[in-house]
Design a protein that fits this description.
- 0% of the residues lie in helices and 49% in strands.
- The protein is mainly β.
- Strand 4 and strand 5 form a beta hairpin.
């Protein structure tokens, strides 16, 4: 099984930036795509960003594309989510996710492992 631990969340003013980190373990002989989801109070969990196991391709939905960037540092088994130009509507708990395959998981049913979540709050 894959264990995921997020960090880097916090409080930031609108227009500011944060970088989230996700440290993975138990992936020595596995090749999983990685990604990020978020969930605001009273709303469904939604896909934010994904990166293939190889790191050759990424996918982000339109509502964050151009503001967020996903990357990975293989030597540290860590995936990052750089968030710039943050908006109040970005406020949510952000969850790191490992897909069940090498393909990016955009649906919850395609996620094999979840992190515990880290809170991101953007003030007006």
């Amino acid at each position: 099984q894959v264990q995921l631990v997020e960090s880097g969340g916090g409080l930031v003013q609108a227009g500011g930036s944060l970088r989230l980190s996700c440290a993975a373990s138990g992936r020595t002989f596995s090749r999983y795509a990685m990604g990020w989801f978020r969930q605001a109070p009273g709303k469904e969990r939604e896909f934010v960003a994904g990166i293939a196991w190889s790191g050759d391709s990424t996918y982000l939905p339109d509502f964050v594309k151009g503001r967020f960037t996903i990357s990975r540092e293989r030597a540290k088994n860590t995936v990052y989510l750089q968030m710039n130009s943050l908006k109040p509507e970005d406020t949510a708990v952000y969850y790191c996710a490992a897909a069940r395959s090498t393909w990016i998981a955009t649906m919850i049913r395609d996620v094999g492992s979840w992190g515990q979540g880290t809170q991101v709050t953007v003030s007006s």
